[in-house]
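Supplementary Methods, section 5.1.

A reviewer requested that the exact input to the structure prediction be made available. We therefore reproduce it here, unchanged from the version used in the analyses.
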Amino acid sequence: MNMNNKAAAVMGEGIAPRSSKRPAIVSDEHLRFLDALRESGATNMFGAGPYLVEQFNVTRSESHTILGYWMKSFGKETR
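The structure derived from this sequence is encoded token-by-token as follows.
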């Protein structure tokens, strides 16, 4: 294991790739909303969590899960 791999292992990175499977909380409606929000230019997408909380009455933690999945899957044909 080279030094970069050791550092990554210590930091918890590089051990196993994170799954890109859609979390149960994420709906097509959430993804369409985030696509439209991005297109509107109303906010930087890193600040989209509060928009999800307001629009869908989800918790802050749930909004992070939804937004994280959207970011990972953005631009993919199937998500």
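DSSP finds four helices and no strands in the chain. These observations are discussed further in the main text.
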